[in-house]
Design a protein that fits this description.
Blueprint: H1 2-38, H2 49-56, H3 62-84, H4 90-140, E1 144-149, H5 151-162, H6 168-174, H7 177-184, E2 187-191, H8 193-199, H9 211-214, H10 220-230, E3 235-243, E4 249-257, E5 268-274, H11 276-331, H12 337-365
Helix pairs in contact: 1-2, 1-3, 2-4, 3-4, 11-12
Length: 366
Amino acid sequence: MTQVLEVRLARQGAGSHDSIFGGAALFVALMVFAADTFTEIEGAIAVIYAISLLLAAEAVNRLGLILLTSLFMVFSLASFFFTHAPDPDFPTFLRLCVALAALAVTAALLLRNENARSALLRTNAALLESEERYRSIFDRTRVALWERDYSKLLQYIMVLKSAGVTDMKAYIKDHPDALDECIGKIKVVDANDAAVELLGSFTSGEPGGVLHRIIPKDSDTFASLLQAIMDGATYFEDNAEVFNEAGERRVVLLGISFPTDPQAFNRVIVSMVDVTQREEARMALAEAQAELSRASKAAMIGALSASLAHELNQPLGAIAVNSQTLVRWLERDPPDIDAAKRSAERILRDSNRASDIFKSTRSMWL
């Protein structure tokens, strides 16, 4: 309701403004016509019609301006023929030409100014529409969005670059306080509802700024972001760890679009998509796969052990029996060497058989 009243008041004010200027233009034109027609002033009085055009330009549109210019030219010609016909002198004719030229030039300049103003109004309307569309997207999207001022951070990084720094990660490693200093140079301009829902309020008066609460002090992703700014990148994307207002760790997909104009770093759009559940599911899946792999290996080892025990049971049992037989043949009086030799050969045969089983099992694992 308030906006409607403001529009109506603005229209009423504009109408009053147009009436004043229109009346003033008409009054000046009539005074010029009277002075040019009924007085003996020897000057280019008709040039003053240009003042009427300037006043009328505030009250009429493009077509009205053309009609008024034509009317004032008719006034000038009428005054000329009424006061100097049928035999005008050259100076008088020259003054008429000057007045008509002044009217034509003034009208041309006013028309050009009207075109420029119309173009400016269209541009402003387009900008307002674009801004409204942007604000609508910014406020209503479910993606967490921020507007941040990176201008001071850019200046700081450019100073480091001019001093010969090319690797921000190495620089931060050598200067641990540099990361906190860089974080402190970023200012949060605005945040949508999704951003507040993700990480909490951004109006906190915490020392060093609210971003010190959000960004971990050892954030490798933030160091990579600083390197991207130093390298002049126009876009940065990576997974990042952040902390919400309750101190809970969140994993987000971070995306930042950097403008090509350094002057525009005062409004940098930052987006975050919460992928914490996805990352937790991925880690859980990896752990489950690792546990399954360990269980599979354990089951395989168990099956292999059972198979190996079954395969080795016969040759080992035969070795034990033949060993006992060998001992009995050797304990005879006199010892039966031939029988003992045959037992020893059987022991050797079964030992080779057990060895072959071990070799075949080993080849399965290589």
